[in-house]
Design a protein that fits this description.
The protein is mostly helical. Helix content is about 90%, strand content about 0%.
């Protein structure tokens, strides 16, 4: 092989090596940019999930408060119903004693 041919092959290999080096540098740059963006997205998603969890916790607390209040209202309602039924029986008994005809309301 002639020296000119060897020099030409070496020049070609050197150019390929240079192009591959440039390609690797560009790929490393893009990989770093992608990793940076992924990290930013991770931070953003964590912040959003944290916000959503905070809202769910608030809703859960409010739901428990409402449930507790409804249970108290139910208890008071049951007591009022029992008192009302008892009073109705007393009224009927007094009306019967007094000889007054009982006419139920709402009929």
């Amino acid at each position: 092989m002639s020296n000119d041919r060897t020099a030409e092959i070496l020049k070609y290999l050197s150019a390929m090596s240079h192009d591959i080096g440039d390609f690797r540098a560009e790929m490393n740059k893009r990989i770093d940019e992608t990793n940076k963006r992924v990290d930013e997205l991770r931070v953003e998603m964590n912040a959003r999930f944290s916000e959503v969890n905070t809202r769910f916790d608030k809703v859960d607390r409010e739901q428990k408060q409402i449930q507790h209040r409804l249970m108290r209202v139910e208890a008071v309602t049951m007591t009022v119903r029992a008192d009302s039924a008892e009073m109705q029986l007393r009224v009927e008994a007094l009306e019967e004693k007094a000889g007054i005809e009982f006419v139920p309301q709402g009929v």
